[in-house]
Each structure stands twice: as C-alpha cells, then as structure tokens.
Fold:
Amino acid sequence: MAKYNISMSVIKRLPRYYRFLGLLLDQGITRISSRELSAKMGLTASQIRQDFNCFGGFGQQGYGYNVEQLRNEISKILGLSNNLGTIIIGAGNLGRAIATHMSFEERGFNLIGIFDKNEALAGEMVRGIPVRHIDGLDDFCRENHPSVAVLCIPGEHGTPIENQLVELGIKGFWNFSHSDIAARHPDLAVENVHLSDSLMTLCYQMNSRFGKNDR
Ligand code: NAI
Structure:
C-alpha cells in the first residue's frame, strides 16, 4: 500500500466521506463535484478539495470526483480490507451490543473471540462466537494471534488486563473502559470511545442554541 502522510484531523473525516460515497454509489451516482458533495455533507468545498488533495486529489476540473475510485482510495488508506484479528473483553451489555451490531468485517477487523471473567457466561453464543472464560486468554492469543482488543469492562479492571493483552501481542485497543491506556502505552494504537462526551457536547449545543424557555 502507498504510504501517505495524512494528518489525524483529515483521517478522522475519512470514515464519514467513505460512508457518504457509499450512499452515493447506492443511488447510482458515479461522479460528484466538491461543491455538490459539500452541500450534502455540510462541509465547505475547499475543505473537501484540501482533504482529498492530501492523497492525490482524484478530481478532474469540470468532471468532479469519480465516486467509486475515491471510495476505494479511502478504503485503502483506512486499511478496510486488513482483516485484523480482534477480541472483545467483557461480554456484558456493551460487549454483546458491540459484538452483535458492529460490522467488524466491513471495517478492517475480524472478530475471533469474546472473553469474560464470569464463568456463568462461558459457552454462551454471541453472534455465532462462544464466550470464553478469561483464563483461556493466553492460550487463545498464542494460537490465534489477535492484534486488536475491544475493552468493554469497567475501568478499574483496565490496567492488569491491558498489560496482559500487550504482552500477548495486542497492538490496538478500541477502548470503552475508562482506563487511560494511551498514557501508559504511547506506542500502541488506541481509540477511546466515551459516549458521554458526545452527550455532553449535545448538552452544550442545547444550551448555546436554545434559550431556557425554548428547550
Ligand atoms: P456489564 O456489567 O453489563 O458487563 C461488564 C462485563 O465485564 C461483565 O460481564 C463482567 O463479568 C466483565 N468483566 C469485568 N472485568 C473483567 C475482566 N477483568 N476480564 C474479563 N471480563 C471482565 O457492563 P456494561 O454495561 O457492558 O459496561 C461495561 C463497561 O463499559 C462499564 O464499565 C461502563 O462504564 C463502560 N461503558 C462505557 C461506555 C463508553 O461510552 N465508553 C458506554 C457504556 C458503558
């Protein structure tokens, strides 16, 4: 794959472009100008041109962008066909919801294992995958070499399990726990997800856009 030097702020916008371009293809739209795309996405046309210029442009004056080509290029940059071996730690409400509803395979990941410390859950099937007891984690990882872990356990349990996971070869965390993995392992790939951050941002928007009496 070609190496790109793209800033994280652009990378963070790529999944949204990828999604929109997929919707356009579903509607049979094969090319689009930055102006049309900007109107659909609520970004400025110059922002879109700048973003796409980071990885070669793909636009032609008077033609616009080839939707499929652009989407394929974004897929390559994001590595969506990587098929990274992935395990979920914690088969509670969140772990099950993520296992059931997230299309890992379409996003570069291959969900191969789900682990929980609760023995009563061992053997239960979630999306066709058996929940395994956490005691079997070492053997499983040595045999199957997952490189990504989705942490769906309370934060206070984050540290011991994360060190164990790192020793077992995990290099990326999709981290729903409230444990600050990146601070302890700056060399790893960590994506923290805090739904509460998004909720508080909505709260700010409600406060700033609407007066007390309009809410
Ligand atoms: P839950 O109580 O339904 O499930 C947690 C599961 O993790 C339990 O089955 C438990 O046995 C297991 N577990 C705990 N420690 C473990 C360990 N060391 N190894 C293996 N399994 C372990 O809780 P729920 O609702 O699934 O939430 C899980 C965590 O995710 C909570 O701590 C919550 O704070 C956090 N959370 C984070 C969100 C976010 O946006 N970042 C959103 C929702 C929940």
